[in-house]
Amino acid sequence: MCHRTFLVFVALPLFAQSTLPPQVRFKQDFINSVVIGSHTAVYASPSPKAPITQLLLTHARRDAVGVVPPNAYLFVPAQEKDLFQEPERFWEKMKTIQFHDYAQISTKIPVYGYANTRAVEDNDQIPVEDATVRAISTPGYTPGAVSYVIDVD
Fold this sequence. Notes:
Layout: E1 4-8, E2 24-27, E3 33-36, E4 40-42, E5 54-56, E6 73-77, H1 81-85, H2 87-97, E7 117-120, E8 125-128, E9 131-137, E10 146-152
């Protein structure tokens, strides 16, 4: 039995598809995605009709969120969950601070909220067929960003 671990983050396109196990597939598109098993994806569903029921997101920026199936659960960083569930609160606040945004708050926050969000924190495990996925805290790109470690047997 061979055990392999992969870290999913923005640079995954550097890996050739041939180096990934069959349970993990990389799809290059306008927003790249990684499919784990048949029902879990990172960043985006590979197509609107794909049977994705779990979508793992690494940070709250709308340019990193692709196709979201209507009934999929979104796993999002705990620190940024409100930005996925109720982005209108962020945008309402931005109206009053827009010319005094000394903290340089990103304006690429999602515009529309998602109902089926689940927060992940450092070392949380996400149930995935044929693999184990663990969230790790990787703040930097955004304050609450996470990456995902995929363990495949």
